[in-house]
Amino acid sequence: MQHYFNQKDIQINTEKGSVVALGKFDGFHQGHKLLLDEVLRLQKDGYTGVVFTFDIRKNSIFDVDKLQSIITSEEKCMLAEQMGIDVLVEYPFDDAFASMEPEAFVTDILVKRLHAGYVVVGTDYGFGKKKRGNVELLRKMAGEYGYQVIVIEKKKIHDVIVSSTYIRMLISEGKMEEAETFLGRPYFLSGHVVHGRELGRTIQVPTANLLPKHGKIYPVTGVYASRIHLEDGRVCYGITNIGDNPTVNTDRRVTIETHIFDFDEDIYEQKLVVELLSFIRGEQKFSGVSELKAQMLADMEVAKQRIFG
Ligand SMILES: Cc1cc2nc3c(=O)[nH]c(=O)nc-3n(C[C@H](O)[C@H](O)[C@H](O)COP(=O)(O)O)c2cc1C
Ligand SMILES: Nc1ncnc2c1ncn2[C@@H]1O[C@H](COP(=O)(O)OP(=O)(O)O)[C@@H](O)[C@H]1O
After folding, report:
1. What is the pLDDT of residues 20-53, one digit of tens each?
2. What CATH number should be reported for the domain whose range is 186-308?
3. CA 156 to chain CA centroid, nearest Å
4. Which atom of ligand 1 is nearest to the CA of 281?
């Protein structure tokens, strides 16, 4: 997959033209999937499939520090690659771009740079200066510039519109099963295993530690049943604690710690993808390590019950 990250000199070489899906695509959820399926369908017909999204970190109108996404840019790239998308664009949404006339976006980017044969958007997609660009404008310019517009209606599940905002709310409340329904896959986090206090092994519950990433949304602190994807493709199950470990931690830094069931290997530096399947309990301060350990063993039984039934 080709990945344009935070760069404006995009040029796609395509014989037949491209199919471009436009959107923020935070989460690549069940609603986004309808757009992505159109891209994949037209890719099979020989069009170059492009997912066009924005990197908004350089725009002064957003309080970037407060923005939290379901998936990081790296995770978006990983998912697009897994789906088989040809090109992922994360276009810099800087102040210059925010004030671009929508007609110029169509002619300069969609037509000249991406050679769009098809443009796929949701019903309420807005782009360009003051969001004046919309489905109507895309349709109006389609004849002259030789592309077709595919408009996708909002997907609903149990009568609720699937949206990134709704899914972020579910995640932050620890409602992992519901988040999974709307995402179409469990919420996951990813990163490289770092060293911790090496206390886990002394209580026979070693935990692979990941650091939280800036800009990523995390669920409420506590214990979760989890599924772990190791770098070599193996899939394991385990239990994950997100929190600042009040029982043993003095610096109160938040970490993500996963104990993998029936596993005994050194996996420091390895990249893990940890899917959080089900919330078990909130984090607590125990009177000592032996109380904590007893609770961890009980948590493991609950996790196994939820995972294996
Ligand atoms: C299933 C599980 C549940 C945990 N629950 C708590 C908790 O409620 N309170 C707490 O202070 N720490 C909790 N921890 C974190 C432990 O304190 C931590 O894993 C242990 O200190 C090992 O740390 P280390 O990886 O830095 O060696 C939990 C860890 C796991 C794996
Ligand atoms: N079942 C397991 N689950 C998680 N990590 C394991 C397991 N078995 C061995 N390990 C290894 O042990 C390390 C965790 O041991 P631990 O004593 O908790 O040290 P640390 O405080 O550095 O995380 C992991 O990073 C991993 O390399």
Report:
1. 999 999 999 999 999 999 999 999 999 999 999 9
2. 2.40.30.30
3. 20
4. 8
